[in-house]
Amino acid sequence: MLYMCQKTRGRLKTEASQEKQQEMQSLTVPSVQAMVAATGRATVPPRYLRPAEVVAGDSEAQIPIIDYQRLLLELELDHCGEESARLHRACQDWGFFQLINHSVPDDVVEGMKISIQQFFQLPMETKKQFALERGQQEGYGQHFVFSEDQKLDWADMLYLYTQPHESRNTKLWPDQPANFRSTLDVYSGAVKDVSDSLLATMTKNLGLKREAIADKCIPGMQSVRINYYPPCAQAEKVVGLSPHSDADLLTLVLQVNHVQGLQIKRNGSWLPVKPVSGAFLVNIGDMFEVFTNGRYKSIEHRAVVDPKEERLSVAAFHLPNVHAMIGPLKEMAAHEEDAYKTLDHESFMKLFYGRKLEGKSFLEQMKLN
Ligand SMILES: O=C(O)CCC(=O)C(=O)O
Ligand SMILES: [Fe+2]
Questions:
Q1: Which region, left, alpha or beta, applies to residue 95 given φ > 0 means left and ψ of -120 to 50 means alpha?
Q2: Is the domain covering 64-366 a CATH 3.40.50.2300 domain?
Q3: Nearest Cα residue to atom 9 of ligand 1
């Protein structure tokens, strides 16, 4: 997720801020993909092993399906119709939905999928050219590791700032495969448009004016986390991505190949999600929960891995602009007490990146009382 703008990057010179950066800097961990290539998928070091029951899922979740074209039509007509009402219920009751008929062209989605798969097939030496730099969040590696005895996720990732353009550190944007950068550029813009329209409908569904939430994202921020989960013969004993909620407003996840693995926590159980072909999996993030004083809640989710096949996904995180304050909107909390603190954007993200992923524990720190 994105917390540092270009201007801020240049400011990280003082000793105090360097110390702070180091505090929140994730420890470097080995590439799981390289480990699997060297030792085989049956070798699982103890740092990755979790109690078997922790990984078990329940029945498949039938999460709501929302039709984007219908939403757009209702938005254009300035009319809260059936699809907007379905979206409102999905946000309130699930915090998660599948978005069909979205406007990101098939060739852009397919191009993105191919580029990502090709990137992870590159030799380790090449991928390392884009490695996470000390004190930064962007690059190839892993986040959220703060102690030598912390359990590790069975995955590698590539994390990049994508919007606005000025936030991009193109040095860390892979130049292989050849069209990676241009594909990500087009993909990120198209996905941001979808997110902006969803936020506009959601803002309206909450009875708010556009400027309350939707306009805070124009120009808003977007980052992508590209997840690579190698196969693991002891898949039932490892976790690909630890249980967490996303820190942003709205996340759009693209399932890259046919291997499933996303699970959501609902009524205390882990429900595996079966992605509809061509759909985005969309979820509410912590910032949305804070803005709405808990009306729309972020949802805890995780990724499990497959015993035989690799799995890949791309999460696009959408956040307000860097100047936005993150706290309960006065319009939402007019007749009730604020349930969350208010922080500036950068402090909020530092808090998120300064601790390991553990369910919704990050948001607990934002709660008042
Ligand atoms: O791999 C997935 O399906 C989920 C990814 C995710 O939750 C994330 O990157 O935050
Ligand atoms: Fe997530």
A1: left
A2: no
A3: 315
